[in-house]
Specification:
globular; three-stranded antiparallel beta sheet; 3 helices; single chain; signal
């Protein structure tokens, strides 16, 4: 029994070390473009992870932390159309603002994973190739590939 306990302890330790570097491929269920959380909401609900210099689609297509239900994306105005995709900073959160806690701001987009808030879907096009601008996707390890995601349901 002691050997099983040690093995379980080692496995749990590895999970704790690896989990922060994994992102989960899960498109947001809703979005609002040109909105951001109010300063009061952001102060009360700090982001659990901040990812800089990524595409808006990467923010909308991937969960970045366990328990994430919301993300907001701040567009970098110097990279608003870099190879066909806006780049900026993604703020992953474990709380969801109400629509009353959002304000208009054309430099932001918000994404929800609660299945009920926002306009349906991620609100972005596909993830783009950072060098060519071609459409593509990322696998569960964040590796980029050109083309359609073979695991995605075809419509």
């Amino acid at each position: 029994m002691l050997g099983l306990s040690r093995n379980l302890s080692v496995i749990l330790s590895l999970i704790v070390l690896i989990l922060p570097i994994i992102h989960i491929d899960a498109k947001s269920t809703g979005h609002f473009l040109g909105k951001k959380p109010t300063a009061q909401w952001m102060k009360a609900n700090p982001a659990r992870k901040v990812s800089k210099d990524i595409q808006s689609a990467e923010c909308a297509y991937n969960l970045r932390v366990p328990g994430q239900v919301f993300a907001y994306f701040q567009v970098d105005p110097t990279k608003a159309r870099y190879n066909g995709a806006p780049y900026g900073t993604c703020f992953a959160c474990a709380a969801t603002p109400t629509t009353g806690q959002l304000e208009d701001n054309p430099g932001y987009n918000v994404f929800f994973w609660d299945g009920k808030t926002g306009q349906p879907g991620p609100g972005t096009g596909p993830i783009k190739n950072p060098k060519t601008g071609a459409n593509g996707y990322e696998n569960s390890r964040g590796v980029y590939f050109d083309g359609k995601d073979p695991t995605e349901k075809q419509t």
